[in-house]
């Protein structure tokens, strides 16, 4: 089980177990084991020993792992729990979409960052070549 349909930062709902019905954001994903950590779900108690003088010891509570089959993505557009479909756009990019409303589940911020980086890289190249020409 190496491919998962969930990513860090996705909002999910727990389907089974003691925390059934709770929603939270995914903190980490382990595709090799098929586990995820969800914020505020499956809280476990850890006894931590202080390792140096300024690190406190004591009983810490943190989210534990949940099997990925026990969570389902909540669509940010329609607000319903949904399965994940994959759609290939005209540029050949594969993206995750909601099965119920067809809205994209992938964050648009990453594509905006790529566009800004490519625009800024195009603007910087002539400046660098002008400096090199002045040195020569």
Description:
The protein has 136 residues and is α+β, with helices and mostly antiparallel strands. It has a domain at 108-136. 20% of the residues lie in helices and 35% in strands. The protein is built from one helix and ten strands, in the order E-E-E-E-E-E-E-E-E-E-H. It has one helix spanning 109-135; strands at 11-14, 23-30, 35-38, 43-48, 58-63, 65-67, 71-74, 81-82, 84-88, 94-98. The strands form three sheets. The protein has a six-stranded antiparallel beta sheet, with no helix packed on it. Strands 4-5 form a two-stranded antiparallel ribbon. A hairpin with a 6-residue loop joins strand 7 and strand 8. The longest helix has 27 residues, at 109-135. It is elongated and about 55 Å long. The termini are far apart. Residues 120-125 have low confidence and may be disordered.
């Amino acid at each position: 089980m190496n491919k998962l349909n969930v990513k860090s930062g996705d909002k999910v709902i727990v389907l089974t177990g003691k925390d059934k019905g709770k929603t939270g954001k995914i903190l980490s994903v382990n595709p090799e084991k098929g586990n995820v950590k969800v914020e505020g779900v499956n809280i476990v108690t850890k006894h931590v020993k202080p390792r140096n003088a300024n690190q406190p010891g004591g009983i810490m509570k943190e989210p534990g792992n949940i099997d990925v089959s026990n969570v389902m993505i909540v669509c940010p557009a329609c607000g319903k729990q949904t399965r994940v479909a994959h759609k290939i756009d005209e540029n050949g990019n594969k993206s995750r979409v909601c099965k119920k409303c067809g809205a994209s589940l992938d964050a648009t911020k990453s594509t905006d960052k790529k566009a800004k980086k490519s625009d800024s890289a195009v603007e910087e190249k002539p400046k660098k070549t002008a400096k090199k020409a002045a040195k020569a």
